[in-house]
Structure prediction request, 424 residues.
Amino acid sequence: MSKKKVLTCFLLLAIAFTFMACPGRDRTGRNDGRTRIRVVHWDLTTMVYITALVDAFKEAHPEIAVEIIDIPSADYTQRLQIMLNGGSDFDVFWIKDGDTTKGLADRGHLADLSAFIEDDNIRLQDFHGVAERFIMNDKIVALPASTGFWVLYYNKDIFDRAGIPYPSNDLTWPEWEELAGRLTSGTGQNKIFGGLLHTWQACVQNWAVQDGRNTIIANDYYFFRPYYEMALRMQRAGYIWDYGVLRAGGIHYTSLFLQGNIATMPMGTWFFTTIIDRIDRGETNIRWGMATLPRPPDVEPGWTVGSVTPIAINNASRNKEASWEFVRFITSDEGAKIYASFGQFPGRATPETMEMVAALPGMPEGSAEALIVRNIALDRPMELRVAEINQMLGEEHALIMLEEVTIERGLENMARRSREIQSR
Prediction:
């Protein structure tokens, strides 16, 4: 065996051993009359809202002691799988990459929450269509702890100068394209672009799965066609930045939007904290607003697309009752309010929690209405092979946007390669 393989084996064993039960500690129980659970998350120094959630749970449940295991974000998914495979005795964990849930469930690592949910009358519909995604093999294996979804950001000054009303919360994608054309003006360094589609494939493909009828795991990608046609029309007309220029220059959407020459931009809810921070630091004076993500014409207002961070119970936990109390708290209205108070979006988003986010310092007027969603379609479904297919779609997306292949040929290539990946 090579030195590299030997070192890798030692590393994996060390990681697994680190999180095995420590001698002298009563992991079943109650040496001070309290049940003890261990919960796993990442980067707690920057994600202070997790500590706040745990502290609030402790206060509400003094009979349960909680220990937090903190793992660096970059290593989290790999180390979590090593810990689970090694039989580590932690109890609850957040799943950083939600699309890995299916693999964890198939390996038997996720406890069935169905009986707990039924006994406590938890309504899956309160999670805006996301909780049902965690029903696997007739079991509910996780619940949405937090989410992030796409909205439409806009520059108020550009709209004001053009004398055009700000975007409504009931805009369709064809209407957005027309609006971007009306807002585009000027040339060279003074040019105002009516819209911006970042280089991620999500900035085209997400709109095709927004209706919840299709996912990126498919055998035919015909449903992508209208959005690639729209993106290329806007690119050729100069309504949006050219994909090739953005990619070649490694130009990020943050700098483009904050410098003030982008009128509208679809982007995730994570972006507003960056805008507020840059304004607070004096790096930009942009006057910005937020509207609900534009929708396909046959979809009702309030449907958007996003991602989710689920929370689950280790199937090997010996303290499932106490672990469920923790999961229930994190995904409850009370947990949702704590998430919202830190500008995070809970899985159980309500008008009240959205009002809390909208009331944060620096948020623009009208944010609460823009953030009300009725359904969140997942950009990446809870299926095996999704990471491979997502990478493949990114490769083919680049060829279409660079116009190195036609839309027709690009979609055919996606379908062929997807079938190959799924058949492995």
Observations:
- The two ends are 29 Å apart (CA to CA).
